[in-house]
């Protein structure tokens, strides 16, 4: 078994951390590398990649094992995973630094956050590889690290021999990757190696005898004066001072250098005097090493920029925005001026994102950011808060009209359509505005109040702007109170189902009913679904409320079937959130079985937007319902943005004409092409058709004349409670109304 075979065997056994068995001669020459990763598969893959390349490999599967190896053995290189189960990669690097362990570190991490990279670089990591890395990238980085280490070790070794070998000294200095120089007491070069020519374009002859200022950037001359005239020795000498040096002919470009300086001193012995021997330390000049750190500085600048900017839009992110807003507040307080904070939320962006995909959604955000930036004044700051939300600070306002004018510009610039690879997209925005100091004096207060004002615009129909007012805070508190009350409503059985009959206009009989939720609020009385379900959707209550609804509907159907309504179909509205839940079908089937309700008597109403959100998943769920015997209707047909092809792909049985189209019917003999088109689609596909929101005799006659024979609306019946609905059924059948027993409380879980 050779050395590589032995290494592979040790890596694949429980004693994977044991050093490779190699000969004494190989121990001297082969670089020793410590591989640290808590994922066995990745560690094994890394081991196999490096084996056979003249490396002495040692593995560690956790931080404590790595620390143990570092304490016992010397390593040239450590390949380190940051995320370990017991000790973090950063802590291991701190241990290496604290103990003065002479080993380079290459960090390999799957961390996407910028803090991990910054932390590794600050701790002196040679390089930072983000998982997954390429095979070539890893091998090249390892080779470069060991090559650099060999050069540095060679430099140190040869430097220790300078006293005895001038020739070796010259070779070392001229082959160094750093600029090495000496200055006399006047700051003029007495020696400089060839690296200066390679990096800066200055030959040795051009610099010898010249003052160091010929190389230094004008803005750094003052700092350079202290560095290049360093007189201190040992630990007190200048270390890691950064200066910018000039190119000889580089088109005005500069490079940044890290100068490590030490002082050359000469011990002189004076003349012998009869009573006193004089000795003194005479300053002779400065010896220095300048390392090119331009690439490192650029990398640090990129990392710093990305930490404070949104990568997608290149706008300031939330952190930088708060910093600039804080400075603007300080300035406004000092100058006794006002400033405005705006909170912008794009209307209908989620619909575009769900319809065209996230890639097109990102393109839309980029185009929006460009348009908004064009509307700003010099000194204003636009930032992306996250998602489709933007924030703006407008310093030094003359009056509120300045903020209003810019908000109007925003709304105007968003009115023009956006072109997303041939797709014409229209969006708008809701803008909330808070003014310092009247609406708040702290950063968080201004942002919160601007956010509240923005939601006020949303509630009033979107596509507008509004200044914050204290009354809005009361409304916001009312919403919180409503949410808390809604949670209690489930527990205290305050919810109730109402039913709006669906009429066959040929027979005048009730053939179905749509279940509509009502809330018997203790203080506000009977609330319709539109007054509280939006809050339920925003606050994660749709799932328990939908569970309650299924149980309540099944309980009520037992009573209405007992009253002779077995042939009447119940329509229930299905929330998209509820359909997306994996156990929705089981909830429905379990309730029907438990209450003994025929699935054929149930029809689930969905909106077109459900078809857009996740078409394939929605098809699977709806097909399960159809196999069970439940039918499916599309509610509000014609108001969404789905393709008509969904009518072929989805298992649809019924189309409901939205009331917004029905309201347009004012003439029995008029021409209403949208309604005629929907009727034609339903007839052509063999689908059942229901018109909702029928309120006048003219509307009913027009719909009947053109082939829509099932209707619901105030012209026939308003939504009514279960006892009244059963009474209507009994009267329709010519029976004497009988008392309806009070329903038992519905279980929250269906």
UniProtKB/TrEMBL annotation:
GO biological process: phosphorelay signal transduction system; regulation of DNA-templated transcription
Keywords of the record: Phosphoprotein
UniProt superkingdom: Bacteria
Keyword Nucleotidyltransferase: no
GO molecular function: catalytic activity
EAL domain: residues covered: 479-733
InterPro entries, sorted: Biofilm_reg_signaling, CheY-like_superfamily, EAL_dom, EAL_sf, GGDEF_dom, Nucleotide_cyclase, PAS, PAS-like_dom_sf
Region of interest called Disordered, as start-end residue ranges on this chain: 1-23
Domain PAS: 165-236
Domain annotation Response regulatory: ranges: 32-146
SUPFAM superfamilies tied to this protein: CheY-like, EAL domain-like, Nucleotide cyclase, PYP-like sensor domain (PAS domain)
Coiled-coil residues: none
Skewed-composition ranges (Low complexity): 1-16
CDD domains: EAL, GGDEF, PAS
Domain GGDEF, chain residue ranges per copy: 337-470
Chain positions found as 4-aspartylphosphate: 81
Key word Phosphoprotein present: yes
Protein name per Swiss-Prot or TrEMBL: EAL domain-containing protein
Organism expressing this protein natively: Massilia polaris
Source species taxonomy: Bacteria, Pseudomonadati, Pseudomonadota, Betaproteobacteria, Burkholderiales
């Amino acid at each position: 078994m050779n050395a590589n075979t032995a290494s592979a065997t040790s890596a694949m056994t429980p004693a994977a951390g044991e050093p490779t068995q190699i000969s004494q001669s190989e121990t001297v020459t082969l670089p020793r590398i410590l591989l640290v990763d808590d994922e066995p598969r990745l560690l094994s893959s890394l081991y196999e990649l490096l084996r056979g390349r003249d490396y002495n490999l040692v593995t560690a599967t956790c931080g404590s094992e790595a620390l143990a190896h570092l304490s016992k053995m010397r390593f040239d290189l450590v390949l380190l995973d940051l995320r370990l189960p017991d000790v973090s990669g950063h802590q291991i690097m701190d241990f290496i630094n604290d103990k003065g362990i002479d080993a380079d570190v290459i960090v390999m991490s799957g961390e996407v956050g910028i803090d991990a990279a910054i932390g590794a670089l600050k701790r002196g990591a040679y390089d930072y590889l983000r998982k997954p890395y390429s095979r070539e990238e890893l091998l090249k980085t390892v080779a470069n690290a060991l090559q650099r280490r060999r050069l540095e070790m060679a430099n140190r070794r040869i430097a220790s021999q300078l006293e005895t070998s001038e020739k070796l000294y010259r070779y070392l200095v001229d082959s160094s990757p750093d600029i090495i120089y000496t200055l006399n007491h006047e700051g003029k070069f007495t020696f400089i190696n060839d690296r200066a020519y390679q990096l800066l374009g200055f030959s040795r002859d051009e610099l010898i005898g010249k003052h160091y200022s010929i190389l230094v950037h004008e803005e750094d001359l003052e700092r350079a004066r202290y560095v290049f005239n360093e007189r201190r020795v040992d630990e007190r000498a200048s270390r890691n001072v950064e200066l910018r040096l000039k190119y000889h002919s580089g088109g005005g470009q500069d490079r940044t250098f890290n100068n490590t300086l030490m002082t050359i001193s000469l011990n002189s012995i004076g003349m012998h005097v009869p009573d006193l021997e004089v000795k003194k330390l005479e300053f002779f000049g400065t010896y220095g090493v300048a390392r090119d750190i331009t690439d490192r500085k650029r990398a640090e600048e990129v990392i710093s920029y990305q930490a404070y900017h949104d990568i997608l839009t290149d706008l300031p992110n939330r952190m930088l925005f708060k910093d600039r807003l804080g400075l603007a507040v300080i300035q406004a307080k000092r100058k006794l001026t006002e400033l405005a904070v705006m909170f912008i939320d794009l209307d209908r962006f989620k619909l575009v994102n769900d319809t065209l995909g996230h890639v097109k959604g990102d393109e839309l955000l980029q185009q929006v950011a460009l348009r908004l930036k064009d509307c700003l004044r010099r000194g204003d700051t636009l930032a992306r808060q996250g998602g489709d939300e933007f924030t703006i600070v407008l310093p030094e306002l003359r009056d509120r009209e300045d903020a209003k004018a810019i908000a109007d510009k925003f709304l105007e610039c968003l009115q023009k359509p956006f072109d997303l690879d041939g797709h014409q997209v229209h969006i708008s925005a809701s803008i909330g505005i808070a003014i310092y100091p009247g609406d708040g004096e702290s950063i968080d207060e201004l942002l919160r109040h601007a956010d509240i004002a923005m939601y006020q615009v949303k509630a009033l129909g979107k596509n507008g702007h509004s200044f914050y007012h204290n009354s809005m805070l009361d409304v916001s508190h009312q919403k919180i109170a409503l949410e808390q009350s809604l949670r209690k409503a489930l527990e205290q059985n305050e919810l109730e189902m109402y039913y709006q009959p669906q009429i066959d206009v040929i027979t005048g009989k009730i053939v179905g009913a749509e279940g509509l939720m009502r809330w018997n609020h203790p203080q506000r009385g009977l609330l319709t679904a539109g007054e509280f379900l939006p809050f339920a959707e925003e606050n994660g209550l749709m799932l328990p409320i939908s569970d309650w609804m299924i149980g309540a509907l099944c309980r009520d159907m037992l009573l209405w079937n007992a009253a002779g309504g077995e042939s009447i179909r119940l329509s229930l509205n299905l929330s998209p959130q509820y359909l997306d839940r994996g156990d929705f079908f089981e909830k429905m089937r379990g309730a029907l079985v438990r209450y003994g309700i025929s699935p054929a008597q149930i029809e689930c109403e969905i909106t077109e937007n459900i078809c857009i959100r996740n078409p394939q998943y929605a098809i699977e769920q709806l097909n399960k319902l159809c196999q069970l015997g439940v039918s499916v209707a599309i509610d509000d047909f014609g108001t969404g943005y789905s393709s008509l092809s969904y009518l072929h792909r989805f298992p649809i049985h019924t189309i409901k004409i939205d009331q917004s189209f029905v309201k347009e019917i004012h003439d029995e003999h008029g021409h209403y092409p949208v309604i005629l088109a929907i009727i034609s689609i339903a007839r052509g596909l063999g689908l059942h058709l229901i018109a909702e929101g029928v309120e006048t005799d003219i509307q009913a006659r027009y719909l009947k004349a053109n082939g829509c024979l099932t209707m619901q609306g105030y012209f026939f019946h308003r939504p009514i409670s279960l006892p009244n609905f059963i009474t209507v059924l009994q009267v329709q059948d010519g029976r004497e109304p009988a008392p309806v027993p009070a329903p038992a409380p519905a279980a929250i879980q269906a």
